[in-house]
Amino acid sequence: MRGVGVAAAEFNRRNAVRLEIADPALRARPLSATLRSDNMEGCVRRLEADFGITASRPQAGVIALRARR
């Protein structure tokens, strides 16, 4: 099981769109899932639906992840 920060780093190595961890507490949150690195939008939707994460797009090419409050 890896943390959200590790998963984001893996996605960032493989995509032009960058995942940013905007909530420091989220970085170490455990994440156990199979996510395709070639489907960024699908990954983000799954994080939002299943893992209590919200995503925003503060600028082109960046998706900021936060823990849902």
What labels would you give this structure?
single chain; 69 residues; Phage tail protein beta-alpha-beta fold; 30% strand; 5 strands; two-stranded antiparallel sheet; 32% helix
Any chance you could write out the topology, listing elements then pairs?
Layout: E1 2-3, H1 4-14, E2 18-21, E3 30-31, H2 40-50, E4 53-59, E5 62-67
Parallel strand pairs: 2-5
Antiparallel strand pairs: 1-3, 4-5
Description:
With 69 residues, the chain is of the alpha+beta class. It has one domain: 3-Layer(bab) Sandwich (Phage tail protein beta-alpha-beta fold), CATH 3.55.50. It has helices at residues 4-14, 40-50; strands at 2-3, 18-21, 30-31, 53-59, 62-67. Strand 4 (53-59) and strand 5 form a beta hairpin. 19% of the residues are buried.
Count of separate DSSP helical elements: 2
Rounded to the nearest angstrom, the distance between the terminal CA atoms is 23 Å
Number of domains: 1
Strand order of the largest sheet: 2-5-4
* Average predicted confidence as pLDDT: 90
The residue ranges in which pLDDT falls below 50 over 5 or more consecutive positions are none
**Can you write the helix and strand succession as a string?**
EHEEHEE
Concise structural overview:
This protein is an alpha+beta fold and 69 residues long.
